Amino acid sequence: MADNNRISIKKTSRVLAITCVAYTTVATILYDNYRIDLIAYSTPVILGTVTAIMSCAALQRMFCSLFTKNYLSFGCKELSPIGITHSETNPDIQEEFPRTENTTGTVSVVAQKSSYLEKYEARIAELEHAKKERRTTIISTIHDYTTYIMAEFFTKEELETLHENIEALAYGQQELYKPIRSREDNPIKSPALRHFAWNIGERL
Which residues cross the membrane (predicted)? Predict the structure, then answer.
């Protein structure tokens, strides 16, 4: 609104400036060439026009003030008392709708967040289940590999202890380790033991 007012003032000022320059130029030319004093002829017209404009402005202000006091509005910028009375009579009604909309928006956002969290929890549970199944499969494969490779180096009891140690390693329970000893007639060699341990560690 302020920008529009500035543009209007600039345009009006430009028009008035051009008019004054044109008027002065024409008056000078007429006086020099034809000895016609344009100012003498136009002064009464200008004064009459200015007086008429000021009179119209004063009458408009007076009528606007009069009609406003009598609760009438004919294009005046002031608000009518009827509209003010209506808004003051029902302040609760005007404030009730925004509150209802805000409440609805809040409920909608909370419901969406709850739905997202439910999906997140379901996805985490799905990943954990897949991880457990994969780990169970790997451990089962390791047990089969251990029985196949180590049966010739350990007795059945010692091999069972080795399986228990593998379970403890798989679940991070190193305090449950138990010592074992290979067969005396066929002891396991260090290279074979290192190879076995490396294979187990890679899979776990």
Answer: 12-32, 38-59
Q: Count of domains in the chain?
A: 2
Does residue 81 lie in a domain region? no
* Structural domain of 169: 110-202
Q: Is residue 102, in this structure, part of any structural domain at all?
A: no
Whether residue 44 sits in one domain with residue 126 = no
- Each residue's pLDDT tens digit in the chain (204 positions)? 556 667 778 888 888 889 888 888 888 888 888 888 877 878 888 888 888 898 888 888 888 888 887 755 445 454 444 444 444 445 454 454 455 555 555 656 666 666 677 788 888 889 999 998 988 899 899 999 899 988 888 999 999 999 998 888 888 888 888 998 888 888 888 888 888 888 887 776
